[in-house]
Design a protein that fits this description.
It is a single chain. By secondary structure, the chain is an alpha/beta fold. The chain folds into 2 domains: 127 residues, 3-Layer(aba) Sandwich (Rossmann fold); 109 residues, Dihydrodipicolinate Reductase, domain 2 (2-Layer Sandwich), CATH 3.30.360.10. It is 38% helix and 24% strand. The chain contains 9 helices and 11 strands. A 6-stranded parallel beta sheet has the order 2-1-3-4-5-11, with helices on both faces. A 5-stranded mixed beta sheet has the order 7-8-6-9-10. The longest helix has 16 residues. The radius of gyration is 18 Å and the shape is elongated. The two termini are 29 Å apart.
């Protein structure tokens, strides 16, 4: 029997791509709703649900997934620490794949960011993250940018909250502090997604980057995760687990 995949947020651009990728992967679209649809009915009709909606709905959807014992693929960005904690609690009951980006290349970027964070001490190398997205994006910095910052901080043995986040510098800010990770968010046109991580010291600079040309890469990755998660026990996973890097 074909895997039945439900879509939360089907009316958006990502939802339409997800429907196409579900069909291409040989799965069945169990249903799709917008933000005001019947989410409990969708979970009941699905083997797994993909959520690309809004941070404000993440906690409710995680709760519905846990209550219905339906695995969840969560691609919503901009979650607060409290919202992420709710998702993690749901993952005690069901398998959840929660990723800042479902592009395989971004998972590789995260792995490199963590290794570079460990190798390049903050006393000598300032870490800065620059990202650009389409003009319709509502959150900044992007979830992928935050994921990069967390990877760098993790490599340095700390959390992003502990090392600090400098975003939106403006005016007479004084010299750059040692340790915090800087973020710059650019918005314009229909840029799908561009992220660069820079480590800059007094005598050198290292830059690693990722650029998405087509939103479909996220849909393909999410459908891949939906198939993968069906064989997993309850737990909180991300794309590095899906592509075999964990």
């Amino acid at each position: 029997m074909a895997l039945r995949i439900g879509i939360l947020g089907q009316s958006g651009r990502m939802g339409q791509l997800l429907a196409e990728e579900i069909a291409a992967a040989g799965a069945t679209l169990a249903g799709g709703i917008g933000r005001d649809g019947d989410a409990p009915a969708l979970f009941a009709a699905s083997d797994v649900v993909i959520d690309f909606t809004h941070a404000a709905t993440a906690e409710r959807h995680a709760g519905l997934a846990a209550a219905s014992k339906t695995p969840l693929i969560l691609g919503t960005s901009g979650l607060s620490l409290a919202q992420e904690a709710t998702v993690a609690e749901a993952a005690r009951t069901i398998p959840v794949v929660y990723a800042a980006s479902f592009a395989p290349g971004v998972s590789l970027l995260f792995a490199l960011a963590e290794r570079m964070g460990a190798a390049l001490p903050p006393e000598q190398y300032d870490a800065e993250i620059v990202e650009m997205h389409h003009r319709q994006k509502v959150d900044a910095p992007s979830g992928t940018a935050i994921g990069l910052g967390r990877a760098v901080a993790r490599g340095r043995g700390r959390t992003l909250e502990e090392v600090g986040l400098e975003s939106g510098r403006d005016g007479h800010t004084g010299p750059r502090a040692t340790g915090p990770i800087g973020f710059a968010a650019l918005r314009g046109g229909q840029v799908v997604g561009e992220h660069s991580l820079l480590f800059t010291a007094g005598s050198e600079q290292i830059t690693i980057s990722h650029r998405s040309f087509d939103r479909r890469v996220y849909a393909t990755g999410a459908v891949r995760a939906a198939h993968w998660v069906m064989a997993q026990p309850p737990g909180l996973y991300d794309m590095k687990h899906v592509i075999g890097m964990a």
